[in-house]
Design goal:
This protein has 9 helices and 7 strands; from the N terminus they run βαβαβαβαβαβααβαα. It is of the alpha/beta class and 273 residues long. Bound molecules: NADP nicotinamide-adenine-dinucleotide phosphate.
């Protein structure tokens, strides 16, 4: 097991569930100091105990809407004590529906969660991250690099998140802060097959593939434990972009050089069962 993050301080927004919690668990096994942000205070308390049992040196948690983390008493003081070696922005919401099936409000809500929340958290942590010349990990998605039908709002907002991540990387380089973009395909989880049922029913969405992980894209689901370990290695090595599976790079490259062919192949693969 790597010990790179032992004794270091990691802030994980969205660290109480899903991929953020898997990352917190890996960091706990490496005996890091953890600071978690989520909204559900009971769940944060539960996960705090699990993380301490798993080996975390300390776990502080802040229950609030992350867009307003700056207003949380004690947050800045906690980070200024140690500085921040690793900031993981793992908050994000997936969605279903083509662009003409969404309302303006649907798009605004997604833009808020998938772009503005992470921007606010990063701004709030910039001084302590700079203090330790730390690394910021922005969890994006393959959908932020390749358009996918059935997920119009998610793709648009995750593309914006990709742009924001690359912009932060350029702007923060001179301050010694590194920014890593992680762009995974669908991640395995217990609720994968039913996660969007209620949303699809509410919006009256019936098209094939909409209920499936990745909006029906033919991709193997990624093991979250393996992914978390890979992300922490990439952050330690200051890699720029971690795209999983790596084969997706071929499609991304094809979009740059032959977009017509790339769109044709993508549509064909989505409509094949
Ligand atoms: N799941 C996938 O297959 C997949 C694939 C590719 C990329 N991704 C990306 O990976 C990231 C994590 O996805 P996930 O599916 O693992 O997430 P998830 O299970 O839905 O968990 C989201 C986490 O964010 C917190 N959260 C959400 N909104 C918040 C807010 N406004 N303020 C504070 N905390 C908030 C939640 O805590 P509370 O419930 O307590 O608020 C929870 O800890 C996202 O950026 C997603 O786009 C996911």
């Amino acid at each position: 097991m790597s010990e790179f993050w032992t004794g270091k301080t990691a802030v994980i927004s969205g660290g109480s569930r899903g991929l953020g919690l898997h990352l917190a668990m890996e960091l706990a096994r490496q005996q890091s100091h953890l600071v978690l942000i989520g909204r559900d205070a009971d769940n944060l308390r539960l996960q705090r105990d699990r993380l301490l049992q798993a080996g975390a040196m300390t776990v502080d948690s802040f229950a609030c809407d992350a867009a307003e983390i700056d207003l949380q008493s004690g947050f800045r003081e906690r980070l200024e004590r140690s500085g921040v070696d690793l900031l993981v922005n793992a908050i994000g919401v997936s969605d279903r529906g083509m662009l003409d099936q969404l309302t303006r409000e649907d798009l605004l809500n997604q833009f808020n969660t998938n772009v503005l929340v992470g921007w606010s958290v990063t701004k709030s942590c910039l001084v302590p991250v700079t203090q330790n010349q730390g690394c910021i990990v922005n969890i994006g998605s393959l959908a932020g690099l390749i358009g996918t039908p059935n997920m119009g709002g998610y793709c648009v907002t995750k593309f914006a998140w990709t742009a924001l991540t690359r912009q932060w990387r350029m702007e923060l380089k001179e301050r010694g802060v590194h920014v890593l973009l992680v762009a995974p395909g669908p991640i395995a989880r217990d609720d994968s097959d039913h996660r969007y049922d209620a949303l699809l029913a509410q919006r009256g969405i019936q098209q094939k593939g909409a209920s499936k992980p990745g909006g029906g894209a033919k991709l193997r689901r990624i093991d979250p434990v393996w992914l978390s370990q890979r992300i922490l290695v990439a952050a330690a090595k200051r890699e720029r972009e971690l795209i999983v599976p790596w084969k997706a790079r071929i499609v991304i490259g094809l979009f740059a050089f032959a977009p017509g062919l790339a769109e044709y192949l993508l549509r064909r693969s989505l409509h094949r069962d």
